[in-house]
Write a structure and sequence with these properties.
Length: about 190
């Protein structure tokens, strides 16, 4: 039995996440899928710091916008349990593959005299090892269609060579997220 699934996030930090998967069910308990997806996460934070951008030993109010844009390509294994009441099928899943990620930060620092300093940190896009694992449930809707609800922990890999050209700062970060997905599955 072949399967096509389209998944979207139920909630996120302001940006979209989606997956498109094609798979095969080998028996009642095991299926394999190949998936491709896009993840974009953006968040804001404010804090106070000193010596961040120009090393003048002053306290600054810092406003940051950080985020990750990533494409992911994974092979996922699913362990399905027997159907409950002939309509509900819980499952466990795990997958490995590649991600193509870019991390960015935009910083606005406000000095005590209300002048501003800006900085931008960005990685070069790179392929990284990625993996995910999660739990979910398929709910039969009508013949050949089901609703897929899942929670997945996603690790897209570590970004490197993050450089602010003005100050020479370098940074490294590992991109991880927990995502709740809802999607529609068609089996033929």
């Amino acid at each position: 039995m072949l399967k096509i699934a389209i998944l979207f996030t139920l909630f996120d930090r302001t940006s979209p996440n989606f997956n498109l998967a094609f798979g095969k069910k080998f028996n009642e308990y095991y299926r394999l899928e190949v998936s491709a997806g896009y993840t974009s996460t953006r968040y804001k934070r404010k804090y106070r710091d000193h010596n961040l951008l120009d090393h003048q030993n002053k306290i600054y109010n810092i406003h940051e916008v950080c985020g990750v844009n990533a494409q992911k390509y994974l092979i996922n294994n699913f362990l399905d349990s027997p159907k409950i009441y002939n309509h509900f099928m819980p499952y466990l899943m795990a997958g490995i593959g590649l991600s193509y990620i870019q991390y960015y930060e935009n910083i606005l620092a406000i000095r005590p005299d209300n002048t501003m300093i800006t900085g931008q940190f960005k990685t070069l896009p790179a392929y990284r090892f990625a993996y995910q694992f999660g739990i979910g449930i398929n709910i039969d809707l009508i013949k050949n269609f089901s609703l897929d609800l899942s929670i997945r922990r996603l690790d897209l890999g570590r970004t490197t060579n993050l450089i602010n050209k003005k100050t020479g700062h370098t940074f490294n970060t590992t991109v991880k997220d927990t995502i709740a997905f809802a999607g529609l599955t068609y089996q033929f």
